[in-house]
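Need residues for this backbone.
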């Protein structure tokens, strides 16, 4: 059995969302993107719930942040923000065929689902677990800091973070892509605390690759 990453999540406050079809399309598009980018498999359940299996555990947290950025940037307004709770677990398992996702099993699937339930009792929206107590304790505080930053992203911060995750390019190139000025892109990256989030993702990816 391989070591994989499994993300189990749900939409925050989905029962209060007025435009559920648009939110559903946004989530579907984000899941499709993750499948292509990380050679992953995904499944949706209970309307607002989802699960993603990724063969390379190093990509687990990056995928979670990319999905959250996709949701936040498409939020209807500053007053109505879309986001997701996501538990990222690393452990034994296999990336299932799309038609057999419901039958998937292994430590990573069990651990991810169990910890999503625990997230629902806290304000935290991102959790990373490996089943190794020392490593989990080490990552917990770092993840809380990163999660607090992401949870306060504006739509503009999420947009520049989203494209920075997808495209390894300069601020000038990003400005051209988004049809903005370079100073505007710089301000939005600073507001997103992008340098900290980027370093967090690199570090957690390294840790999960060794888990």
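Answer:
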């Amino acid at each position: 059995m391989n070591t994989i990453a499994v993300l189990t999540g749900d939409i925050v406050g989905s029962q209060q969302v007025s435009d559920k079809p648009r939110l559903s399309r946004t989530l579907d598009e984000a899941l499709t993107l993750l499948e292509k980018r990380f050679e992953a498999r995904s499944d949706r359940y209970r309307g607002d719930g989802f699960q993603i299996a990724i063969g390379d555990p190093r990509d687990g947290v990056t995928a979670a942040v990319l999905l959250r950025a996709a949701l936040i940037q498409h939020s209807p307004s500053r007053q109505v923000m879309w986001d997701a709770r996501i538990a990222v677990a690393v452990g034994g398992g296999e990336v299932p065929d799309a038609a057999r996702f419901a039958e998937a099993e292994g430590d990573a699937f069990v651990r991810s689902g169990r910890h999503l339930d625990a997230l629902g009792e806290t304000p935290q929206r991102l959790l990373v677990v490996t089943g190794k107590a020392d490593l989990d304790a080490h990552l917990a505080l770092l993840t809380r800091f990163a999660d607090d930053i992401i949870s306060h992203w504006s739509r503009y911060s999420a947009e520049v973070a989203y494209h920075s995750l997808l495209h390894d390019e300069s601020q000038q190139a990003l400005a051209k892509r988004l049809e903005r000025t370079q100073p505007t892109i710089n301000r939005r990256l600073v507001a997103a605390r992008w340098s900290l989030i980027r370093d967090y993702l690199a570090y957690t990816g390294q840790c999960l690759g060794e888990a």
